[in-house]
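Exam revision sheet. Question 4 asks you to relate a sequence to its structure. Input first:
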Amino acid sequence: MTNVTLDKVHSSLDFQIKHMMVSKAKGTFQNFDVDFDGSIEDLENASVKVVIPVESIDTGQKDRDNHLKNGDFFEAENYPNFEFVSKKIEKISDDEYKFTGDFTMKGVTNEETFTVEYNGTSKSPMDGSTVAGFDVEGKINREAYGVSFNAPLETGGVMLGRDVKFTGNFEFIVE
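Answer key, structure tokens:
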């Protein structure tokens, strides 16, 4: 077992959704925790738990952030966190994995799979610590979690897409 701690300063978690059928609305989470249990050298036998406070959502527009936190979307007062708990980690290639687990949003849990690229380890020139890096991508259907707010467009289609895409870049300190 390895002691692995998320370096939040060098990590990010972003999302995007189709907007108006022609562009993307994007945002980031200003706060999140990733608990890693296992060894970096044996990812298939590790486990991961990610907790994302809904209050940390940041789209760069305060009114939109507040709308996302209310009952039309995530109902942050009653469901304060998004959560992912891995159930299976499968090696696809030397540096690519599939993390499958339970994703919970707004009190609904579904199995989801995210692609994870392991970027290896490196020694920090600042303090000599070992760091490991991962890039994560995936998408969920927000409607499967009861998040179905939308509006029809006069030109056809709807204001918001169903799929929410996530991208994360995570750096861990390995001891």
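Marking note for examiners. Residues 62-69 form the longest helix (8 residues).
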